[in-house]
Amino acid sequence: MKEIENSNETTFFIEIFYDNKSFINYIITANFGCARSYIFSQNKLYHKYDNNTKKENHSVKIDNSEEIIKLIVASGDGYIRIWDFHSGILIKAINCDNFLDCLCLWNNEYAFVGCDNKLIKLVNLKSGNIVKELTGQNHYLMDIKKIVHPKYGECLISQGYHDDQIKLWVITN
């Protein structure tokens, strides 16, 4: 078994990322204290991404579609924070006005965030604007994912806390 240095703070989410340019595997955690990245082969901390007033980071995603690799973090203080993954510098903070539980990148310009008020918000990551709100979940959102449905094409699925069903959202332009 391999152990990697981590804080004693609660970890809400874990992600892996292989950087094709540096040929390094990273593990990224969304912690109660901050988001962190670790170099897997060296068992050590790479960066600590910390600019969160509530100290709750619930979901992390990597966007490597552009020259700068971005770490995108959804947090309990209602912000999506976009970090330069390798430098650890905060690029942008987008206020979504709600406690954020989960995050799904739609493409390199948009993300869906699941909120504690049962809403799913579509956010333009470049402009910072909330483009659309989806309603209909019975409880706060635990997770959202992008899928390709054979009939409807690219869709979103969501699962609420203590919900007995997974919802399929057909996304239209």
Short structural description:
By secondary structure, this protein is mostly beta strands. It has strands at residues 11-19, 24-31, 35-39, 44-49, 57-63, 70-75, 79-84, 90-95, 100-105, 110-115, 120-124, 130-134, 141-149, 153-160, 166-170.
Major sheet: order of its strands? Answer: 1-2-3-4
Rg over C-alpha atoms, rounded to the nearest angstrom: 16 Å
- The share of residues in helices is under 10%
Estimate the mean pLDDT confidence. 85
Main β-sheet: number of strands, strand sense, barrel status?
4 strands, antiparallel
Strand segment count: 15
Q: From the structure provided, what is the oligomeric state, counting identical versus distinct chains?
A: single chain
Sequence of secondary-structure elements: EEEEEEEEEEEEEEE
Shape: globular
Tally of helical segments: 0
Find the structural class using helix and strand composition: mainly beta
Strand content: over 45%
Low-pLDDT residue spans: none
Q: Give the distance, in angstroms, between the N- and C-terminal Cα atoms.
A: 47 Å
Tags for this model:
173 residues, mainly beta, four-stranded antiparallel sheet, 15 strands
Structure description:
- With 173 residues, the chain is mainly β.
- The protein contains no helices and 15 strands.
- The strands form four sheets. Strands 1-2-3-4 form a four-stranded antiparallel sheet, with no helix packed on it. A four-stranded antiparallel sheet has the order 5-6-7-8, with no helix packed on it.
- It is globular.
- The mean pLDDT is 85.
